[in-house]
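Task card 7
Instruction: Convert sequence to C-alpha cells.
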Amino acid sequence: MSGVSASRYQIPNIPGKCRSFTAFGVSDFDSAALHERQNEFNQFNVLAVQHSDQGLDIQAAYFNRKSVVHFMPDVIADLVFNGAASDVYRRSFVNGIQTDASYRWADAHTLRAGFTVSVERSW
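Output:
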C-alpha cells in the first residue's frame, strides 16, 4: 500500500494588524496584502505479509514515510509585523517494522504479542 500527497497553501491574512517594526525603510504595510506560502509533500509505503498455521497467526510489516514542509515568508511584511521572517524547511524520514502474533491455546484462551519499532531522521 502506498500514498502520496502534495499541497500548496496561501497563508490567510489578518487585516488591520498593527505594525511594530521598520524593515528596509518600510514601516507602513497593509496586513491584508501579506503573501506567505507553504508547500507540503507526504509519501508513505507499507509492505505486509501474513501467515496462519495450526492456531498461530503472524503478521509482519515494513513501513516508511517521507514528509517535507517548506514555509516561505513575505520577508518585508513579516519583518514589519513580527520582526522576523524565517524561511523554514523541514524534512523527515521514518523507517519501521511492526509485528503481531496470536496463538489459540484453547477455545477460551488466546495468547497475543506484538511490537513496533521505528527510527525517524529529521533535518
